[in-house]
């Protein structure tokens, strides 16, 4: 609040101003940003206001006896370089009245004071604050907090802070050595089964967070006016009123108070980590995990984040000594954009716009905050879409997410253009402003037309060659390769023997089945003349069962002779070296491929699979030979690809060494499920083999340029959510 913001009105009649400054207010001098301010504390409303020396002096002149002329005269005599008129005195009196810093005995003066009506959005925000954060004050804790602070004084000492930081680092090292606990962890953080424990962890964590603010504020001399229970978005948490930190003169102490909640939560998270690792499976272990995650990850991403108005923001404000950093940054950048684009200068922003010393801070903060808010809007849209997808309302979720993003963009445009368009007829330099506005309008229309141009989506990916027809030769029982009758590169026919396995277990079971059958048949033939018909039928049935068992093992023994089922070529290298090697049941021993029919298999993420269709044109280049080829998409799989279907070549899209084991594909697949597009290789050369790679460009569905740019930006900035 500056005196420059007062409206210039005609001089008022010389009357006594009935406003009288309250005598219970506490004024405390403070150095902030190398400037002197006065912190005014309201002990009844527990509110704090920061005034420059001129405004603090002007406030003391309201004694209920002076006129506006007298107040202006005294002020101008004391501050000759900043003169004010009676109208400004009256305006300042209105500001003090709205902040409940004065006593007004005469109600008839209320109508004479200019008032600024609160906006609809301001009233709406106050309503939601009351609804979503309900406080129930219980105690005034300063007395017993002193005893706690006295016993834990070392936590706020330099040595205590160093030890605490070392404790955090040691905990990180401890978790690194016990990282297998994360791999074997069975807790699904956002699952319905975990909601209650997550709810309980938030209650404990945020209550300790507020307690950290209270004890730290008390440690550095601030008063804790009240402590109680609050409903934060209907979650019961403890809360404290540590606003007295405003009057703490030491800047470092104020920063410590602002970050005390994060400081406390990281201690809680570190302690919870040890409980989570060492406790046996059960409720306590799950609660410790939720508390560890809530007190560490969410704290660092939200409370410590200076781009949101939480603890990190207020600590940054004290560090930079720029009060209302967020509001000033947006106001300054808005004023600059209005001046550059429209030639419009808002008189109420002149003071903010001219803060050239902090200009780079305002620009950086406003840009980062805007990008972060865009990220939040997009993330919220993706969460809504994924939430509605299982019930068949994915399109509704996409519409809601898109609407949220459009509303965010419109809010920025309205902030920049609405006031200049509304006030342009009342400002000076109308022609210049209209000229700039015309160019902006022309540019906007041209940009809109450009965004409506029809284009095609394009997908750039990598394809790996696979044979359309092939056989992976396996054995249902496994065994040791005893004989080999083929070699690498040999052309084989259906039914041709390939190799023979030796499996001692199958051989033994076959011989036992044969021996059991022979003994049973001998015994049956010796006693047949003396048996009754019923016994004979029973024995005959037993022999049939044993014969079926013997035939089963004969078949298993026959399966140790592996044969080709297709007409193709042996593509496995060094087949001769397989002799004497053991293969497990189901393990691939040889690969036979039809060398006349090949397809490129290209992975597509969810976003890409929606714009690629059967028959789409494909242009590619072979990585090995650099030859260009053309083809089309035969079909796109409707089911998500399994991790086992990925070829290691898919991980190296631009050539280079192919990893033997795709170590990161499972993690990537879990974040971003993939589909496969199958592209036939037309007229394959004689050197075509499986595993060859090609960089390909698929022409997708028709769209407009604006949507294509939007998809590109969202994939670039928010890949893990969009894709």
UniProtKB/TrEMBL annotation:
Highest taxon listed in the record's lineage: Bacteria
CDD domains: S2P-M50 (cd05709)
Residue intervals passing through the bilayer: 153-175, 255-277, 283-304, 357-376, 396-418, 439-455
Localization: Endomembrane system
InterPro entries attached to this UniProt entry: MBTPS2 (IPR001193), Peptidase_M50 (IPR008915)
Required cofactor(s): Zn(2+)
Record's keyword terms, sorted: Membrane, Transmembrane, Transmembrane helix
Residue ranges of every copy of the Peptidase M50 domain listed in the record: 198-304
Membrane topology listed for this record: Multi-pass membrane protein
Major subcellular site: membrane
Similarity comment text for this entry: Belongs to the peptidase M50B family.
Entry protein name: Peptidase M50
Organism: Methylacidiphilum kamchatkense Kam1
């Amino acid at each position: 609040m500056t005196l420059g913001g007062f409206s210039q009105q005609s001089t008022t009649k010389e009357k006594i101003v009935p406003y009288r400054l309250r005598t219970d207010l506490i004024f405390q001098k403070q150095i902030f940003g190398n400037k002197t301010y006065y912190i005014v504390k309201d002990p009844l409303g527990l509110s704090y206001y920061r005034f420059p020396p001129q405004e603090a002096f002007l406030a003391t002149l309201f004694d209920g006896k002076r006129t506006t002329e007298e107040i202006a005269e005294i002020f101008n005599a004391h501050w000759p370089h900043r003169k004010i008129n009676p109208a400004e005195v009256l305006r300042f009196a209105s500001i003090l009245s709205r902040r409940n810093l004065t006593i007004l005995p005469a109600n008839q003066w209320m109508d004479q004071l200019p008032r600024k009506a609160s906006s609809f959005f301001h009233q709406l925000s106050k309503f939601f604050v009351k609804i979503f954060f309900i406080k129930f004050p219980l105690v005034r804790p300063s007395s017993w907090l002193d005893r706690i602070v006295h016993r834990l004084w070392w936590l706020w000492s330099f040595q205590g802070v160093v030890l605490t930081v070392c404790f955090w680092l040691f905990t990180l090292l401890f978790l690194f050595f016990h990282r297998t606990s994360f791999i074997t962890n069975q807790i699904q953080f956002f699952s319905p089964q975990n909601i209650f424990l997550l709810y309980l962890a938030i209650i404990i964590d945020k209550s300790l967070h507020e307690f950290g603010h209270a004890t730290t504020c008390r440690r550095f001399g601030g008063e804790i006016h009240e402590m109680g229970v609050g409903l934060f978005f209907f979650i019961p948490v403890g809360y404290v009123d540590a606003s007295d930190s405003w009057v703490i003169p030491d800047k470092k102490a104020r920063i410590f108070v602002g970050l005390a909640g994060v400081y406390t939560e990281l201690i809680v998270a570190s302690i919870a980590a040890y409980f989570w690792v060492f406790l046996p499976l059960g409720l306590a272990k799950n609660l410790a995990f939720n508390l560890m995650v809530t007190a560490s990850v969410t704290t660092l991403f939200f409370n410590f984040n200076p781009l949101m108005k939480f603890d990190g923001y207020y600590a940054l404000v004290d560090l930079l000594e720029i009060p209302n950093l967020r509001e000033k940054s947006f106001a300054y950048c808005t004023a600059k954009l209005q001046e550059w684009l429209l030639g419009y200068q808002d008189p109420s922003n002149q003071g903010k716009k001219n803060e050239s010393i902090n200009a780079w801070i305002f620009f950086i903060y406003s840009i980062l905050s805007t990008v972060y808010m865009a990220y939040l809007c997009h993330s919220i849209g993706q969460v809504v879409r994924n939430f509605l997808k299982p019930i068949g309302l994915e399109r509704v979720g996409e519409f809601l997410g898109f609407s949220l993003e459009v509303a965010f963009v419109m809010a920025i445009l309205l902030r920049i253009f609405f006031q200049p368009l509304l006030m342009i007829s009342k400002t000076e330099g109308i022609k210049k402003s209209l000229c700039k506005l015309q160019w902006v309008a022309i540019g906007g229309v041209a940009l809109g037309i450009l965004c409506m141009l029809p284009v095609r989506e394009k997908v750039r990916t990598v394809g790996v060659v696979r044979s359309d027809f092939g056989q992976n030769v396996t054995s249902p029982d496994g065994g040791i390769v005893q004989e080999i009758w083929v070699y690498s590169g040999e052309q084989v026919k259906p039914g041709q023997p390939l190799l023979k396995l030796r499996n001692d277990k199958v051989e033994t079971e076959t011989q036992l089945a044969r021996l059991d059958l022979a003994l049973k048949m001998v015994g049956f033939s010796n006693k047949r003349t003396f048996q009754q018909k019923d016994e004979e039928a029973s024995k005959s049935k037993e022999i049939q069962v044993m014969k079926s068992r013997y035939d089963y093992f004969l078949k298993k023994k026959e399966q140790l002779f592996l044969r080709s089922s297709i007409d193709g070529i042996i593509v496995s290298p060094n087949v001769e070296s397989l002799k004497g090697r053991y293969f497990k049941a189901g393990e691939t021993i040889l690969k036979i491929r039809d060398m006349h029919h090949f397809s490129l298999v290209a992975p597509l993420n969810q976003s890409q699979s929606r714009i690629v269709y059967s028959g789409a044109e494909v242009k590619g280049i072979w990585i090995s030979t650099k030859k260009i080829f053309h083809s089309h998409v035969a079909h796109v799989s409707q089911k998500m690809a399994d991790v086992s279907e990925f070829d290691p070549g898919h991980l190296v899209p631009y050539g280079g060494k192919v990893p033997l084991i795709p170590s990161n594909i499972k993690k990537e697949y879990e974040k971003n499920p993939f589909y496969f597009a199958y592209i036939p290789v037309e007229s394959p050369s004689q050197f075509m083999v499986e595993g060859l790679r090609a960089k390909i460009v698929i022409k997708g569905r028709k769209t407009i340029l604006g949507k294509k740019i939007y998809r590109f930006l969202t994939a670039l900035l928010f890949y893990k959510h969009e894709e």
